[in-house]
Every structure is written in structure tokens, then in C-alpha cells.
Amino acid sequence: MQLVERNLVSLDDATVIEKLLPELAAKKVLTGYEEQEDGSKEWKFEDSKGEITPRMLLNHTNGTGHTYSDPLTNEYLKEGWEVRNEVADPYQTLLDSPLRWQPGTHTFYGQGIDWIAVLIERLTKLSLVNYLQENIFDPLNMKSTGYEETHGGDITSREESDGRFWGRSLKQEDGSYVTIDPSPLAKPARAKPFPEGEYHTHPLGTGLASTATDLTRFLTILLNEGKDPVSGKTIISPESTQEMWEAQLPAALRNDSRLITSALPGVMVPVDLPAPTLDPEGSFGLACGVQGADRALGDGRKGRSKGSVYWFGAANTEYWVDPEKGIVVLAEGNYFPWNDEAWTAFVAEVEGRIYEGL
């Protein structure tokens, strides 16, 4: 939204995708496959019939899938026992992934946010980490936020040296937890990163690490019409903040696919956003969910208010910003699988108690 305010891009301009993301504009739609006698797959495609705009990348109507949540995209990118994905190699995964639906016809939480990362770098001619540092992290004094080493940053080693890095865990069937990524300090051998080279190292869908303090300060600007209440600095305009919060999907698209499926059962549990106890009348906003009616929790208590914006992190992180009540809520579990039953029960209980006290 900062770049929109600076007139560097329009949310509804498809030509910017054709010009700056030609790899995305040229993609075909993967529709399925036919199993061959030798066990191989003959993949079936059709030409894309619609344009993609920056808005569609943000509201998840761009037609992309995701290796974590779309089984067919996951299957297509397999190479023997090796699976390419958005965590191991985000940019190459973007290049290799087909579209999964005709743009503008289907909502799916896909790769749009990572394409936005590439677009920001190409528009500004800066690495994403430098752009974020100069325009968000430094103005908000977010000193403990940055990219992990696997995505070209140094936040993991900096925080670990102070004994402050909390590695992610995986929950086992017996309820125990094992650490799955103890501070990967080595940067993978990749092509020279942008802008010195052409490789886009920094995604937006993964790779960033932060603290509850930093992240809450960032979320608070959404509650304060784009302004940091601590320093008084404006990060985005009130108009941009309002547009982010507006329901972006027409009625026909709101509930056709706000089911977030799973291609990796040990990592993600599917969640149906239109479920009665979640957001049956809601929509995607710009890179967030927008609560369509006051949330009715499973035990009958009231939850977040209509108009709240919310989203999740894959390692059981969840936030919501409730402008009616004037609150920001952030819950961090930092373990997989996402949407684990114990985690969702915990968040619902926290939510119920908060609103009982308001």
C-alpha cells in the first residue's frame, strides 16, 4: 500500500503484472493428469483466460495454488523423493508452479503474497529486506524482526546469540514435541540475490522472524489508521488502512473456497473459514481475513467483532485487530501442525475470556 500511495503501482493494473511479473502472466492452468501405463503422469493444462492484478495477488483470487495446501501443486512439483516448496526455495517454486484455477474465478490461499514480494523488489529495485527495514522495521523500532538465514537474513543468529531465539517444534502423536529447525545458520547456495542478481531470495509467506512485542507494535498501526501510536510516525495512510480492511470478494466468491486444505497432514490441518464458529459471512481483505459478523464461539460466547481483521501463521500463530473494541490480540504457539485441535481450543478460550471482560 505504501507503493500505491507513491504512485508506483495501481492495485487494479494488470499491465504491471505483464511487465514486471511476466513469468506469472505467462502461466497456464493445471487441471489434472492422466496416469500412464508406466506409472508416470501426463499433466493436463489449459490456457489462462483472465488477467491478474496486484489486488488479486493480495485477495487470493489470482489462481495460484500452494505446495502446503494444494495437493495437486504439491504432486506436480515432486521430483522423486524431493519436493520443492515455498520454504525450501520460494522463488524457484514460484517459477515452477502452474496456475491452478482461472484468475478471478476462485479464491484460494496460494502463492500471491510471495509474488507480491517479487513485485516489490522489481518496483523499488531494492531487496525486500532492505525495503522492509527502511520503511517499516526502522520507523517502528522493530529491532528483533528480520529474515532467517535460510532466506538471506541474520535474525536467527542475532537472537540466538542472546538466548532469545525460540525454534519451531512438531507435535507428535503422543503429545510430545520435537524441535524441527534449530537455527539453520548456513545460507543455501543460490544465485546472486536481487538487486545485484536476478534471484529473489526474500518471500513474504515465510522466512520472517519476530517477537511478540515487535509484531504487536506493527499490528497496532492498523488499529490507529496507519500511524504508530508510540512515535507518531505514519506508516500508511488512513485511506490505505481502510482499503485493506474492506471485504474484497464478491458474494459469489466469498465461500466457494475459503476452505484452507492441506497437502501435508503432519504440518497442516484443514480449516473451513466459513464454519459457523469462525467466519461464515466473512471475506478476504488485502492480505488478511475480514470478519463478516460478530464471531459466535462454539460454547455460545461472543468472540471478535464484525469488521475485525485477522490471519494466521503456519506454526500456530494467530492475530486479530478489533477496531470496535480497540484491541489487538496476538497468540503464538510456534509449533506444527497448524490448526492443531489443542491450539484452536486454546485460542477460542482466550478469545472467549477476553470478550467476557470487555
TrEMBL record:
Coiled coil: none annotated. This is Beta-lactamase/transpeptidase-like protein. InterPro entries: Beta-lactam-related, Beta-lactam/transpept-like, Diverse_Enzym_Activities. Pfam families: Beta-lactamase. Residues 1-339 form the Beta-lactamase-related domain. It comes from Amniculicola lignicola CBS 123094.
